[in-house]
Give the backbone structure.
Amino acid sequence: MDTIVPKDVLLPLPAPVWLLVALLLVSFLFHILFVNLMVGSSLLVLWTEIKGLKKKDWDKVSHAIASTITVHKSLAVVLGVAPLLTISVLYTAQFYSSSTLLGTAWLLVIPLVILAFLFTYAHKYSWDALQKSKGVHLALISVSCALFLSIPFIFLTNINLMLYPEHWGRIGSFWDALWLPNVLPRFFHFLMASLALTGLFFVYYFRRKSSDIDLGSLKVSEVTRAFYGIALAATAAQILFGLLLFFTLPAHVVSIQLIGTLTLVVGLVGVAVWLLWHEVRAEEPGRRFAAVTLVLGMIVSLMAWARHDVRETAVEPHRAMVAAKTAEYQAQVAAAHDYLLMPGGLGGVPASAGSLVFTRRCASCHSFDRRLVGPALNEALGPYRGNPQALSTWILKPGRKRADYPVMPAQEVPRDELQQLVEYVLQTAG
Amino acid sequence: MDFPIFQADFFGNRLLIALIAIVHVIINHSFAVGMMPLLAFMEWWAHRTGREDWDKLLYRILAVAFIVTTSVGALTGVGIWFSTSVVNPAAIGSLLRVFYWAWFTEWVVFVCEVVLILIYFLTWKRLTGIRKPAHIRIGMALGLMSWLTMAIITAILGFMMNSGAWPQQQDLLAGLLNPAYIPQLLFRTCAAMMMAGSLALALCAAFTKKRTAFRREAVRAFAGWTLFWTLPMCIWALVYYQAIPAEMMANLPVAFGTQAWAGSYTLLLQLTLAVGLIGVAFNLWALLKPARAYSFVWLVPFLCVCLLMSQFERARQFIRKPYVLAYYMYSNGVRPHESAYLVKTGLLANSAWTAHKGVSTENRTQAGREVFLIACSRCHTLNGANSVTVNLARLYPGQAWNPEVIDSYIRNINGARPYMPPFPGNAAERGALAAYLAKLQTKSDRIPSNASLGRN
């Protein structure tokens, strides 16, 4: 079927496009950073707590990681508001169409995130109480991990579906949209980014000079090396998932400048892997921390730009169609509206004031010669012939007269209108 | 017209939004806007008088507030955007364009609020001794931020009900600062203080031992706080009530209950008043005889004030009908400005997501169903909440539903029911809708959550 072209919201953008784009990119970068830390930390808590079953000191590491999630997850949510606001304004026609198409699945994000947070809190605050029942305690964090791993699917499915209006007509459910190419590769890409960034964060966290975390017999270098190892493995895996992501992109969104950006990214990933490799093998890891952070920061920023590039190339033709349709519609609406405002614009025979009031206020439920919602007026007005006052009183405060009819609601009619109305109906009734 | 149709056909789209919004308001007012000033104030008092027991109690209350606001509270706030964008994308899309910078500012304040509550909670046990005053100041700043987010959002809420001169002159400030704004804000401020006091009362009963002097003192303090704010709340509620536009007041009887309850408006008002009085009575009891009760008794004032707030929010949301954005857009997403064009050219022809672009003798029922989805389904379901079939049965008791009779009802529906928008399509579409509705009497239909493009 043809691509579906809706009209845009008929109000101007609140700011120049470049400003909105800048706000979107920057605020999203902060949002996704904390989302990465939130998801990555949950996975690392699970991993280190399992390690802690064999070697008690890793349980301390796990506890230290768990106590940071509270901050990351709160900031992840609050920082997500600005990009949500901005993408809704900048890509209204695309983003709201895909959100509405996903419907229930999109709404499920809310209860699922609430559940994930509550399980995370339950896990964090029951650390000492459940020291003896590690199984239950591990189950709590496993549930939050499972939730944190499933929620990104909904986001990625939506953000992917909005780019491809040509598919909208066939999307009957969330699952149809989930299996569009590119969603799964994007998920793994996101997951690896989370692990890489979180690994790096905890290298920093456990090496801080002010760190007063009790690691038992574990050496800081040992812990640091483990987290560097995770960052290394995840970054190296990005080469594979990055390629998969690139090759599942539809051909029409790949531009020369996208290839340029991504080539630069591949080069930087190479540098990052080389640096991380040396850190993992170093006697005292940490000397190259600043360099690694800088390179990963550059990669993340370039990827944000590449995402935007893909989004713009994919959406541009549809946006042009939407804009053309909206402009045409607005012109026609304005013409029809102006026509209406001209004298005699409504056409037809000029009606009496009383009959206009009747049409507006009564005609839904009353006709003169047949039962509608209420009784036929020819018959019902019988008792009021020659008694307009009684009819006025009834209209303002009606009650129940007939058992097989619904009760008439009280009508708030201004006095002059009421007089015209009563005069008209009593005259017209046969 | 321009977006796919999402339909919660049992629950009702309105109830979906209302439920999320009401949970959010209750948490926002009682756990944040009212609670943070209360905690900071009591923390200051406890520090001044050297009360360790109070400090401990306040920390436990804050822990509850922290967990609830940073999970359910924050997410239901985002949930209002999610649900409104799925139910009525045209309306929330328009509102976002008008209020982008208001919301952006609110977001900055919101970030500050979250950062401050993280600091306030996580440093409670670390910033002690001579650093305690700094901690108290953090609490006060947090209270201010919570209140500011509410002040900004209340302006937007006020605009949705009374947009002032905005539709004609696009004068945003006039819309924002409409006559109901200040009274609504002050009413909400006092209500939030009361809600926080009632919640603290319930929590202190859970956290302290029965029949101790400390329990008596805490119960008395929180009940006193709630009672202190009761009178100003009533005054501002009355001022706010006076500022509601007259045509919206006419919707109150239906807004308070449902159509079926509209006749019992006075009874419902009395019930509401009774709930309020019960709350006040329990607070007086707490003030005068604080020792004489089981712990769960002190939950009653909080339940009362939550009930009242839910009823207020429901009524407030309803009385702006037939508009979703005052004078700019009807509840079904159609703008009064485009009515003339749609009546001429038809609703279906101007919709992007319909399988039928016009009405013919072959597609009449199917086209009628699509007209229902576009023009009616934002507020009505087929068989669930606010269902059209129940309403039709009420209009035509014991009779066969006649398409022509229904058609003539819909033609002037906004006259018969002032909270309904006018039918937005052409005569053929109205006929098709009437035919579809009449058929529902004998042949029931169901609407899936994603009902666009003729999907069953």
In short: Chain A touches chain B through 76 residues (CB under 8 Å). The first helix of chain A runs from residue 17 to 54.
